[in-house]
Amino acid sequence: MKKLSLICFSGDFDKMVAAFTLATGAAAVNYEVNVFFTFWGLNIIKQARSRRMIGRGAMARAFNYLSGGFSNLPMSRLNMLGASPKIMTGLMKKRNVATLDELAQAAIALRVNLFACEMSMNILGMDVRDFVPQIKEVVGVAKFLEIAEGGQTLFI
Amino acid sequence: MTLVKVKLALEKIAPGDQLEVLLREGEPLENVPRAATEQGYKLLEQTAVGSGVHRIVLAR
């Protein structure tokens, strides 16, 4: 079986659209697809979709609050104080293109394997209960490399 | 995303059931029938219905 593994580091709205488009497209043609969310990418998989003070310790809680979640991912450019993702989502709906929400739901429906980075999770004082239940496992680099072996790996 | 939506719809139908899909010419028409047949689904029908739209019928 063909395999595609994506490392989602950036957590930017537009880059996550690209990541989930790749993930769902590959899964639709029967690739095994693995997505590893690390660092800013953890914001996509938090249970709390908006800014919440989660995590252990004051600094971690402040960081998680400022970073936010799925509902406030920034654009990588021209963020315009958070207006751009909303404008972009509106354009996507108008042009009948799948929104980031729809892409993420499709990825889950197509059984894309979702992993959280253990190191980033620890730095930010979170635990697995802070993530959506669709996370298959919290893994480190060595385990992820094992999972990704034999396929293509992309860093986004 | 057309391919993704078709794939999800095909997974929901029972064996023997059919799925009718309307596709635009270009990439959707090139990719969807080919990908579906590669995955073991049957392409029963493909007809042009006008304005660059094609109708295909797939069966599980």
Structural overview:
The complex is a heterodimer of chains A (156) and B (60). By secondary structure, chain A is an alpha/beta fold. Helices cover 40% and strands 17% of the residues of chain A. Chain A has a single domain (3-124, 133-155), classed as Hypothetical Protein Ychn, Chain: A (3-Layer(aba) Sandwich), CATH 3.40.1260.10. Chain A has helices at 13-28, 58-67, 83-94, 100-109, 118-123, 141-148, and strands spanning 3-8, 32-37, 113-117, 135-139, 152-155. Chain A is globular. By secondary structure, chain B is an alpha+beta fold. Chain B is built from two helices and three strands, in the order αβαββ. Chain B has helices spanning 2-12, 27-38, and strands at residues 18-24, 42-50, 53-59. In chain B, strand 2 (42-50) and strand 3 form a beta hairpin.
In CATH, the homologous superfamily of chain B goes by the name TusA-like domain
Number of strands of chain B: 3
CATH class of chain B: Alpha Beta
- Number of extended strands of chain A: 5
CATH third-level topology of chain A: Hypothetical Protein Ychn, Chain: A
The secondary structure category of chain B is alpha+beta
Level-2 CATH architecture of chain A: 3-Layer(aba) Sandwich
Radius of gyration of chain B: 11 Å
Mean pLDDT of chain A: 96
Radius of gyration of chain A: 15 Å
The end-to-end span of chain B amounts to 20 Å
| CATH homologous superfamily placement of chain A | DsrEFH-like
Question: What separation lies between the terminal Cα atoms of chain A?
Answer: 23 Å
Query: Largest sheet of chain A at a glance?
Result: 5 strands, parallel
Helicity range of the residues of chain B?
Answer: 25-40%
Mean pLDDT of chain B: 92
